[in-house]
Amino acid sequence: MISVSEALSIISKISYIPEQKIILLKDAHELILSEDIFSPIDMPPFRQSAMDGYALCMNSGNSYEIIEEIQAGTDKNPKLLPGQGARIFTGARVPDAADTIVIQEKVTRIENNITILDTISANQNIRPTSEQIQKGQVALTEGTKLTPAAIGFIAGLGIDKVAVYTPPKIAVITTGNELLKPGTKLTDGKVYESNSIQLDAALQQLQIKEITHYKVQDEYQSTKNIINQAIQNHDIVLISGGISVGDYDFVQQALSELGTEQLFYKIKQKPGKPLFFGKNKKTFIFALPGNPASSLTCFYIYVLPFVLKTMGARSNGLRRTTKLLTTTFTKKGDRAQFLKANVSDDAVTILEGQSSSMLYTYAIANALVYVPENKNTISPGEKVETILLP
User: Fold this and answer.
1) Measured between alpha carbons, how far apart are the two ends of the chain, in Å?
2) Do 257 and 174 sit in the same domain of this protein?
3) 243-261: b or e for each residue (b if 16 or more CB lie within 10 Å)?
4) According to the model, what pLDDT value does residue 178 have?
5) Which CATH number does the domain housing residue 142 bear?
């Protein structure tokens, strides 16, 4: 059995070079750039009006003759003389001869003449050429996540295709004779299966599209065959259940017989002690505990950082911060613990119902409080490491 920090260290040291592909920008949400993007244009490509108002060729007075109107999208460039101006709208090209733009609320207009009601200065309300970026400059660097804002920025440069790291192909294998699909009739001795559904949701939140689901009964040969099939066709295999030491837990034996290299097995933590991480040829395998809360905790703490690595992300996983505790908690034993909690402003409250089989507490939680091995009691007002859930 290894510590939480040792397990995270093993995962962080794995070398993984993601594949790359060029895709349409509209399909790139939440993916990671695999190469730098250089701006093909100046942005803005011309002097641009920041407001609705009047573009003026300044003189010493406060009265101007308006000789033209310029809408956004037109290429008008009237030759203004001192004391002349043009009606102009936000986003429109500013005439070369214009020194400034005065907003429409600061003038009075009678027919084609305006009077300025406030002081004006050169270049006000004008966005200069290349104010945002110059042609040839790096717009976004390799490793940048393509958020809606990043996609909008790239689109504004006229780019419609980007090079991204290819998300991994992931298999989710569910074990357990007792499991039924939601929506079917519940019979004696059975429970509804939730692990594969919550794992699927967590992976889709990362924009993982290629997810294959397998269901296997608690029987050795079928367990081995399904795991082998998943290994042959996927980059990452997630196995739910069957990794403990019960008479009908066949996952570890199957992985061993298939030649899987064990990188670690069992972590000194609660929940999620029986977590397996290994490698078979080019495929990485996480065998997660069968209890739903244990499975989800192991996903967030260990699987998520690894999946992000395979996607080319710079992130090490969920954001960690320090919060002031509002409750008292005393743990039993010497294992580290991850406790479902709620964060509000600078405080965090540990929730009732920490059993590894209970998902209700997870459903209303927005954070996990980490209690290290060497800490037994945490008290109100104490600062605790807090992991913010997606």
Assistant:
1) 29
2) yes
3) bbeeeebbbbebbeebebe
4) 87
5) 3.90.105.10
Q: 53-56 and 191-192: which strand pairing?
A: unpaired
**Contact indicator for 367, 341 with CB cutoff of 8 Å:** yes
Distance between CA atoms of 241 and 219, rounded to whole angstroms? 13
Place of tokens 């962080």: 12
Is the bond leading into 390 cis (omega within 30 degrees of zero)?
Answer: no
> Can you give the residue range of the structural domain that contains 147?
20-43+131-165
| Residue 181, pLDDT score | 87
Amino acid identity of 89?
Answer: F
Q: What CATH number is associated with residue 327?
A: 2.40.340.10
Cα dihedral sign, 307-311-316-319: negative
User: 286 and 204 in one domain?
Assistant: yes
Identify whether 315 is part of a domain. no
C-alpha 36/C-alpha 163 separation (Å) is 9
- How many other CB atoms sit within 10 Å of the CB of residue 217? 13
Instruction: Tell me the C-alpha distance between 224 and 256, whole Å.
Output: 10
Q: Which long-range contacts (CB under 8 A, 24 or more apart) does 63-70 make?
A: 63/113, 63/114, 63/115, 63/116, 64/113, 64/114, 64/116, 65/112, 65/113, 66/109, 66/112, 66/113, 66/114, 67/112, 68/95, 70/95
CA trace torsion 221, 224, 228, 231 (10° rounding): 160
| pTM of the model as a whole | 0.85
List, as one string, the DSSP characters of 276-315: EEEEETTEEEEEE-SSHHHHHHHIIIIIHHHHHHHTT---
Nearest residue to 55 (alpha-carbon basis) of 31, 36, 71: 71
**Residue type for 48, please?**
Q
Please, where are the H alpha helices in 44-157?
148-156
Give the per-residue pLDDT at 248: 62
Q: Which residue has the tokens 């002031």?
A: 324
Residues 267, 171 share a domain: yes
What is the number of structural domains in the chain? 4
Q: pLDDT below 70 — which residues of the chain?
A: 246-248
Single out the residue in 127, 145, 179 at which a domain terminates: 127
